[in-house]
Write a structure and sequence with these properties.
This protein has helices at residues 18-24, 39-49, 69-78, 83-87, 99-105, 117-140, 155-162, 191-194, 202-222, 231-240, 248-254, and strands at residues 61-66, 90-97, 144-148, 168-177. It is of the alpha+beta class. Helix 2 (39-49) crosses helix 6 (117-140) and helix 3 (69-78) packs antiparallel against helix 7. Bound molecules: flavin mononucleotide (FMN).
Length: 260
């Protein structure tokens, strides 16, 4: 489908490539056509994604491919009723996975009982890099979707549903399918506040927020979504000021990850 705002912001830049165009045109897609996403396509996407760099070659991640309607329905429920999880043809769960590392430690009768923040971070970063690589690989085939952080609403329930062992948790999921919507691209904050050269400039970093609040407000209004005057700031304050998913540290500890 052709987006109403045409190709993305990056497309007109003098330096471009197929990959830059895929990234520059990207937007989250939450509505999917009936067109099938084949197993061969999923394999191609994941084999490409698995070339992502991985901390210390640990490969501390796994991916669970979900097509079963009942499982997706249950995952949607855990995610606060996100319908796109039910309606997407393929759902991928990106799992931080320390099981193989623990097995390596067992060579000297060791285990991961004393694992620390760094082990959990490495596995979570690995899973995230593979996830983003899969997202880009899928997009290059015309298959798009949205990432689902709401898997962390209830890591235990997700783990049980997907048969995950101790020392694993789903960092995020991903709905994939052929798009049946062409949403306008959501604007990003101005590069001058985000990209720094040689040294971080705190003034510039904060100065972009006011302009962005106005831009995001205009964006939401243009797509008929109500928003506050200070759109981004108000949203962030409302959604995240009250310690989101405050149970997460305990829940992940039960799954064998120590994020102390
Ligand atoms: C790790 C991660 C988790 C996300 N979780 C959700 C989610 O649970 N539900 C959802 O609808 N969108 C989710 N998103 C999508 C973001 O809301 C979206 O990327 C952001 O608003 C920017 O919009 P865009 O992707 O269209 O540019 C997630 C994105 C990321 C990176």
């Amino acid at each position: 489908m052709t987006p109403p705002d045409g190709p993305g912001q990056m497309t007109d830049h003098p330096i471009t490539s197929d990959t830059i165009r895929v990234l520059g045109d990207r937007r989250s897609i939450r509505s999917y056509s009936d067109k099938e996403v084949t197993d061969a396509q999923v394999t191609a996407i994941l084999e490409a994604a698995r070339r992502a760099p991985t901390s210390g070659n640990l490969q501390a991640y796994s991916v669970v491919v979900v097509r079963d309607a009942e499982t997706k329905e249950k995952l949607a429920k855990i995610s606060g009723g996100q319908k796109h999880i039910e309606t997407c043809p393929v759902f991928l769960a990106f799992v931080a996975d320390l099981t193989r590392i623990e097995k390596a430690f067992q060579r000297h009768d060791g285990n991961l009982d004393n694992n620390n923040l760094e082990m959990g971070l490495m596995a979570s970063i690995d899973a995230s890099l593979v996830g983003m690589a899969a997202y880009v690989a899928a997009d290059s085939l015309g298959i798009q979707g949205v990432m689902i952080g709401a898997m962390r609403n209830d890591p235990e329930a997700v783990a049980e549903l997907l048969g995950l062992p101790f020392r694993t948790y789903v960092v995020f999921g991903m709905c994939l399918g052929y798009p049946a919507e062409a949403p306008k691209q959501k604007p990003r904050m101005a590069a001058e506040g985000i990209i720094h050269y040689e040294r971080y400039d705190a003034d510039k970093a904060l100065a972009v927020v006011d302009t962005y609040n106005a831009e995001l407000k205009a964006h939401y209004e243009s797509v008929g979504k109500p928003t506050a005057d200070e759109s981004w700031s108000a949203d962030v304050d409302k959604k995240y000021a009250q310690r989101p998913r405050d149970h997460l540290r305990d829940a992940l500890k039960k799954r064998g990850f120590d994020f102390r």
